[in-house]
Amino acid sequence: VQLVESGGGLVQPGGSLRLSCAxxxxxxxxxxxxxxxxxxxKGLEWVSLISSRGVTWYADSVKGRFTISRDSxxxxxxxxxxxxxxxxxxxxxxxxxxxxxxxxxxxxxS
Length: 110
Known about the structure:
Helix content: under 10%
Mean pLDDT: 96
Low-confidence stretches: none
Strand content: over 45%
Oligomer: single chain
Order of helices and strands: EEEEEEEEEEE
Structural class: mainly beta
C-alpha cells in the first residue's frame, strides 16, 4: 500500500489548489480516505474525510471552501481547496487505514 500526495505549492490568499493522493495497492473507492494537515508548533488537524460509501466530513475551519472527492479511473483521492487563507498553510497528508503519504506543502501567503 502506498500513498503519494501532490498538488501543493505557494498561493495567494483567496486562491485555489487541488491536492491529489495517488493510491497503489488498494482501491480508493472501497476505502475511507482522510486528509489532515500539520502546522508547525501545532498538532495534526483533521481536515476532511470521505467514507467508502461516499459520505463526507469537513472540519468547521474548511467547511464551504474545501471539497473532497475520489477518482475511480485514476485511483486517487482529491482535495479541492478554494478561497485559501494564511491559516490553511501546512503540510497536507492523505491517510487510508494506518497508511499515510509523505505529505505536500501548502503555503498561503501574499
